[in-house]
Amino acid sequence: MNTSTHRKAENWVFSGTVHPERAAFSYDRPINLTVANSDIGITIDLTVNIFANKVSILVASDCCFSDIHTVRNIVSDAANHVVEITGMVTAMAHAVEITSAIDINSGNGITFGIDMPAALTTQAIPDLAKIAHLSGANAFVRHAIADLINAMRRPADTGFLCYRAFESILQDIRHLNECDKKKAILMLKEKLGVRDSDMDFLREISNDSRHGKPVWISGDDRIRAIKVTRSLILAYIEGLSSGVWGPWPQAGVGGSPQ
Prior knowledge:
By secondary structure, the protein is α+β, with helices and mostly antiparallel strands. It folds into two domains: 10-111; 118-242. It has seven helices and six strands, in the order ββββαββαααααα. The chain has helices spanning 68-90, 128-136, 139-153, 158-177, 181-192, 196-210, 219-242, and strands spanning 10-19, 31-37, 42-51, 54-61, 95-103, 109-111. The chain has a six-stranded antiparallel β-sheet with strand order 2-3-4-1-5-6. Strand 5 and strand 6 (109-111) form a beta hairpin. Helix 3 runs antiparallel to helix 7 (219-242). The termini are far apart. Residues 1-6 and 248-253 have low confidence and may be disordered.
């Protein structure tokens, strides 16, 4: 932690909670760390305090913050990393949710929601009962939906998780049609109108992270990745329910009992 006495350009306090709250979590002293994100040119000093599952993080930087939601994502990743170090030793899977922040310089505050930007909202409400019925019988679809939601929760892993959701759909097509990956991709294009540019985009933003290299993607790329993946999953489910891909699976993976 930088201990110089000059006032930083940005000084914030981020607050949150360690989940699950029923499992007590505290540190007996502050944890200091510095996070440098070369992709967006920000270096941040953090002091993390956790007591009785309540999180308070002092954030200071000489870099001006142009997007507080991006900073929230960086702070959230750092706080979860600190908690995950403990979890690695104790075999406990805690997670940090950052809920609000206050700008010490101005006194202004912000409360963060769990929703994604307005660009991701949709007016069409899917048939939840239909989706629940199908996904209950199809592990590939369940995994794809779970990865999509985790992509929303974990900004740094959005690319990897969206691509894995895409791969789950491909695996189901291969299973149902007894075909190879190349043929499954061709069927996605022919039957659902999936574009090469969207598939190439998902591969591109996930390539490094799939091979263990930490990457940071922009907010615009996150939105595009989630929109593409969500559209693919919903279109695939609609195709399954209408018989585009063959009989509706009744149990297990792709119709096979588990």
